[in-house]
Amino acid sequence: MYGKSRSCSNRYIINSIKRLTKFDLAREAYRRSRSFNMSLQKDKLQYMSGFGNEFTSEDPRCPGALPQGQNNPQKCKYGLYAEQLSGSAFTAPRESNVRSWLYRIRPSVKHNPFKPIDNGLFTNDWDKVKPNPNQMRWKPFDITKASQKKVDFVQGMATICGAGDTKGRHGLGIYIYTCNTSMDNKCFYSSDGDLLIVPQQGGILITTEFGKMQVDPNEICVIQQGIRFSVAVSGETRGYMMEVFDGHFTLPNLGPIGANGLANPRDFLTPTACYEDKDCNYTVISKFQGHLFSAKQDHSPFDVVAWHGNYAPYKYNLDNFCTMNTVSFDHVDPSVFTVLTCQSLKPGTAIADFVIFPPRWSVAQNTFRPPYYHRNCMSEFMGLILGKYEAKEEGFSPGGATLHSMMTPHGPDAECFENASSSDLKPQRVADGTMAFMFESSLSMAVTEWGNKTKVDEKYYECWQPLKKHFTIDENDTNGPSIAKKKKAT
Ligand SMILES: O=C(O)Cc1cc(O)ccc1O
Ligand SMILES: [Fe+2]
């Protein structure tokens, strides 16, 4: 039945070359799926638009692979296995209930046992490190050259800071990834949380169980808990990554802004089903309770022929962000630039917000335009994708980072303060050719041992030391301080 069907071309080919050995058949299936996958140039990849939609997707090579009207028929078309991936408790309220059904060549369970592997610089063990309340700044993180040592995405992950606990399902981790080589017959998934990936140098082609996404610098993607993915790169590659243990990212409420603006739902792109039927020695790396484990299996995990559901990875181009801001006076809080948020149980308070500082018009009367001086009951980790950040034109470079921990004072450097205090306030473009971002968390994060000793800019504090005392009392100022007025009266 399957062999006669034009619809599943791998089977068709396999059955039409009957006298070949099992090995030849497997090789032929691999060749066909490989040439299909290679023909998917990054600009030819197809996506479905929308945030949190109920999507359906079938690989065009196997039409009708999705069961109609039910999730797990006694026999799935093309001999596929049905598998549910649950991203919320079965009983979660409808608005937060997420799951997808995958129709795959083999179920994920067909693997050898997981064995612990060396975590390298990747850890969620931040409680052993001594706390450090200082402002932290990191110079751009080094990328190993392929000629020195081949490093893939998983080998190149390093934890810079974090808080909370994977077992208690509460917290976040912030990671830097640097790599020079594609993951080869190897995939990764986190059992602990959702990953938000922010490429900074070099695009990444991510193959997931749901399909492929090309994510270039100035784009971001989210790969949720449990979803397997493999990263291909084409040179020296660097980026930032945040993992949230509590729940999933959502779009922020817009309140009085109205129904549109900030990150609009239709600009989120989810990949379409694209299977590979590949028999090979494959390695699955699992992050489980903050530790890495490896399991071998005899096939590619990217064998999902069709899927449906509302639990699927997505990407977003930061250029699509519709910025809101003041058109009268005062510097508006940076929450107005929130792209995605992972909320805690405390109303309006985030485990993590992903906030960007996009190119925009700045129009403000009688206002100190750059970020204000600040002490925050939240932690602020910042990264720079491109260009410069207006509050610190010098010293904060693309591929570097800053951390302003809970209640740690921060704000514009002395030069920025002096310039912005006297600049002409006509409407102006700000942040053109730049993209800075912030991971803001209500948790108090600890910097890891690696974070404390790698690329740290020990002189960061110096950027505020030239801030001058400008305080003066003008005896003739009738609106001035009461002491001056009292003196005049007597
Ligand atoms: O530069 C920062 O550290 C982030 C930041 C931005 C802003 O617009 C206002 C306050 C703030 O802390
Ligand atoms: Fe701040």
Characterize the structure shown:
The chain is mainly beta. The chain has 2 domains: 9-318, Jelly Rolls (Sandwich); 320-464, Sandwich (Jelly Rolls), CATH 2.60.120. It contains 5 helices and 28 strands. It has helices at residues 9-16, 22-38, 414-422, 449-453, 482-489, and strands spanning 47-49, 55-58, 81-86, 99-104, 115-116, 136-138, 157-165, 170-179, 186-190, 194-201, 204-208, 211-215, 219-223, 229-232, 237-244, 268-271, 279-288, 291-299, 304-309, 314-317, 338-343, 350-357, 360-362, 379-386, 401-404, 428-430, 435-441, 446-447. The strands form 6 sheets. A 9-stranded antiparallel β-sheet has the order 1-16-20-13-10-15-8-7-28. The chain has a 6-stranded antiparallel β-sheet with strand order 6-25-24-27-22-21, with no helix packed on it. A 4-stranded antiparallel β-sheet has the order 2-19-4-3, with no helix packed on it. A hairpin with a 4-residue loop joins β7 (157-165) and β8. α1 packs antiparallel against α2. It is globular, with a radius of gyration of 26 Å. Bound molecules: 2-(3,6-dihydroxyphenyl)acetic acid and fe (ii) ion. The site of fe (ii) ion has 5 residues, from loops.
